[in-house]
Amino acid sequence: MTDPTLEYFINLGQIGSKDAAHLDWSHAANSRLKLAAALRGPCHMIEADILLRGHEPKEPILAHPPMRDSDITLQEWLEEVLTHNKGIKLDFKSLEAVAPSLALLEEVLGDWGAPVWLNADILPGPRGTATPLEAQAFLKAVGCISSPVVLSLGWTTQWSAETDNPGYSWDMVRQMEEMCRGLPHPVTFPVRAALLAQSFDQMKWLLQQSDRYTLTVWTGPEDVFTVQDLLPYRRHFEKSQIYYDILDSVRLELCI
């Protein structure tokens, strides 16, 4: 199964071709106010972070650590999204939130039809110190969902202006590909823009392994990179193979 995301927005007339750089993203829609703004806005995809509430009732909520509470539960969030033609990317921050969240997805969304991405960092990446979600447990949980989803499977990473920043190593990409090889779902690999100039050969190899694979380029708020760092990716790969979840000014420059 290949990624249906672009086809969905083409069929709605929101983009004109299979160019993933044309998709616009909204981030951290982890409150009622931010979700309402995202639903009113021009974005195609809405990203939010999921964990279990830190007190009773322990249910999935929208919040980013270290926050442990929110003014909106996942069920309420999904019910709002259901009335719109936006895709969603749910970023899991704890393994314990996965199973109850997937049950809600199946119950609330049913045959909704819009893109649903399920994101987790499952392996350590360049200079990554955060603990990834346990890979096999996450993949086993999402493997049980019957709704069509895109799995967004990444590495924990860090970037600093004060030191050298190595790219994604061969061991990292080979380990990830081995984990994803047998999955039935489309898989997108979130990769950090500031690390891509030194990772081209590894990413080229990774995308060659399956037509189910894409990249999603993202950036941290303090990261430094240039459009030139991304141009080899834009020129070499099919435009449907790489999403750009980066500043609109940079993303639109790539579209020229």
Give the strand content.
15-25%
Helix content: 25-40%
Could you state the CATH homologous superfamily?
Answer: Aldolase class I
Q: Note the gap between the termini.
A: 30 Å
Query: What overall form do the CA principal axes indicate?
Result: globular
Count of beta strands: 9
Rg over CA atoms, rounded to whole Å, is 17 Å
CATH class: Alpha Beta
CATH topology heading: TIM Barrel
Largest sheet report? 9 strands, mixed
N-to-C SSE series? HEHEEHEHEHEHEHEHEH
The CATH architecture can be given as Alpha-Beta Barrel
- How many domain regions? 1
The overall pLDDT average reads: 95
Mind explaining what this structure looks like?
With 256 residues, the chain is α/β, with parallel strands linked by helices. It has a single domain, classed as Alpha-Beta Barrel (TIM Barrel). It has nine helices and nine strands. The protein has helices at 5-11, 32-40, 74-81, 98-109, 135-142, 170-180, 200-208, 227-236, 248-255; strands at residues 25-26, 45-52, 60-62, 87-92, 116-124, 150-156, 187-192, 213-218, 242-245. Strands 1, 2, 3, 4, 5, 6, 7, 8 and 9 form a nine-stranded mixed sheet that branches. β7 (187-192), α7 and β8 form a beta-alpha-beta unit. α3 (74-81) runs parallel beside α4. The mean pLDDT is 95.
